[in-house]
Amino acid sequence: MTQQTQDKKLCMIPGPIEFHENVLDAVSTHATSHVDPRFINVFGETLENLREVFAAKNAQPVVISGSGTLGWDIVASNLAQEGDNVLVLTTGYFGDRFTECFQAYKANPTQLKATPGDRPTLEQIEKALSEKEYKILTVTHVDTSTGVVSDVKAITELVRRVSPNTLVVVDAVCAAVAEELYFDEWDVDVLLTASQKAIGVPPGLSILVISQRALGVYESRTTPVANYYASLAKWLPIMKAYEARKPSYFATPAVQLIYGLNVALKQIIKTGPKAIFEAHKKAAVDFRAHVEGLGLKLVPVNHEVAANAMTAVWFPEGITAADFVPHLFGKGVVVAGGLLADIGPKYFRVGHMGLSVVEPERGYVEKTKQVVAEGLSHFGYKGASQ
Amino acid sequence: MTQQTQDKKLCMIPGPIEFHENVLDAVSTHATSHVDPRFINVFGETLENLREVFAAKNAQPVVISGSGTLGWDIVASNLAQEGDNVLVLTTGYFGDRFTECFQAYKANPTQLKATPGDRPTLEQIEKALSEKEYKILTVTHVDTSTGVVSDVKAITELVRRVSPNTLVVVDAVCAAVAEELYFDEWDVDVLLTASQKAIGVPPGLSILVISQRALGVYESRTTPVANYYASLAKWLPIMKAYEARKPSYFATPAVQLIYGLNVALKQIIKTGPKAIFEAHKKAAVDFRAHVEGLGLKLVPVNHEVAANAMTAVWFPEGITAADFVPHLFGKGVVVAGGLLADIGPKYFRVGHMGLSVVEPERGYVEKTKQVVAEGLSHFGYKGASQ
């Protein structure tokens, strides 16, 4: 069941995405010690390049072996203390789960929850911030379950105006590198993401960028961090050591995946984040036009709240994910069903991020558009004229 | 800095180890959805094969994206509650750190600590167990910092005789597949390990096998698990779903590393765990004879406590890790310096596990023996005759 023997399907779900050949080559780098000077240099360079990609010169990058979800634990266990108020802006499944994570660490999260497909308004957020002192506000940049994008820039400006000490934590798992974000300039406090989305590296790396403000909050804790593997006390010296090109050890890093991340970040820097954001915007506009042209409705309530990284689309009457997704699989393209409880079977999700939009000449998105149209037709859908 | 451009060195540290070409090929499997039916089948088969490799038919295997260290958090946060007594048998660095991990979760660990190179005696363990009611006993099967092996079989028999409800947790990070262990037969409760040691897969997977007794203790908790990413409440349904070949989602698994694990476990099953244990024993006897033949002393105080997976060796007077390790690196072989505080520079460590001992015809261990002897000579050591 390896590269050679497993029939290739186009992986067009909202992550994991298609990986560049050079990235896949790098993740199969031969056995290398985690304190090999050559690997130390690669990891150090990777951390430096994360600063560059996210325009986060003043912040601390952290890369840990784990899934994107681990980033929530790192935030909740290091930045919140028992009873701390947290405002969780919820635009889908992932806001609900991040709330659970804060509860596990005995913080006191409050959800400001939009109806599926929408997002809380700035007025609602301002009102919520005026009602309670929040130590942390979290926002899902793109909620993978709905394809709704949040306006991180406006939210951060609002927080700085009405509650300047509140930390702004951006869950950018499905957004980083696909949706515009300038860490220092926008004054964000934490960006957390994962390797397998628009960054374009196989899953297994939890990636964070942490502001000096957030590090100050962490350092001023009055209670110990109630976690071991996610403890910044353990990881900050390790990240600093790698960046200083010195050997260190807490837990063995995922050496091969970090080789992959190193290659992916260099590709991103070469193309340029701004050009990449534009490519995602263009692909999203085009993909939305395609499905709307077929007469379908988007899960996001309007184009302003629709992500550039992915699109969630309602099925027409009579078609469900249980039929449609396996049919497209048979045609060589993997798309995802819905993720929200109850309504999951009623919509599907397509990722158009990373390689498929940065190198459109590969035809991945075009092929996906084609099989989506053919699949709908196969199940008897007659299109906009119905 | 990928496979093609990075000069190959033989990675003979006690993990990460040399990886089989087919495993490296599998970890670069093209992009595949975590709910692709083909991946679901591969993950399900991998879990079944973990049962077979560890002779753990009645136990629950768990594979999570993370380093081996994460296994400690899974044990400490799910199986211990605040104030629970834990006896940590300590044979080096990793017992100290596991103790810290229990403290992070507010359990009450007590260390039974041997001097470096030795291990607690069964009499000492029995005495400790008679003094307090311990919910959990932990033992490091092989402590990577000292190369000391613990007698897991005898310890488990002792626990079952004098404190039958105490859970026996085996930190097998540097031992699994290299040192004999039969999970069900020996009545072990938790085996925790990582992918990059004798299993032979790049780092990034935390692997556990959990007994029904331990699951019962977990299920009878009276307080919530104070962790999110490490919570068995989240992961058990996922593992059961993959084994039942059903789609599920909590956090995206490290798809490519699991492809690698699938290949590695099939190789292990093909050779047979017993034959693999024997190969490790033979290689260890041979390697110890080599270094002792050169007049060097082992860190383990005698052969009975010396691991089969690796060997830790004291340098002769006048040679330190800071000189010796880079010199061997220059000769194409990567060995590790010491890991214990204060005495770290005074000894070195060699891993002889996995591929290098299962396929001795590759000559990895022979080459290592040769450069160790030449390196000592290079630094003026005249050998046993000195």
UniProtKB/TrEMBL annotation, chains A, B:
Residues bearing PTM N6-(pyridoxal phosphate)lysine: 197
- Pfam family example for this protein? Aminotran_5
Give the GO terms filed under biological process for this record: glycine biosynthetic process, by transamination of glyoxylate
Q: Which GO terms describe its cellular component?
A: peroxisome
Its keywords, alphabetically, are: Aminotransferase, Pyridoxal phosphate, Transferase
Cofactor names from the entry are:
pyridoxal 5'-phosphate
Q: What Enzyme Commission number(s) does the record list for this chain?
A: 2.6.1.44
InterPro entries registered for this protein in UniProt: Aminotrans_V_dom, Aminotrans_V_PyrdxlP_BS, PyrdxlP-dep_Trfase, PyrdxlP-dep_Trfase_major, PyrdxlP-dep_Trfase_small, SP_NH2Trfase/AEP_transaminase
Q: Which domain of life is it from?
A: Eukaryota
Which residue range or ranges hold the Aminotransferase class V domain? 30-338
The molecule here is called alanine--glyoxylate transaminase
Q: Which organism is it from?
A: Conidiobolus coronatus (strain ATCC 28846 / CBS 209.66 / NRRL 28638)
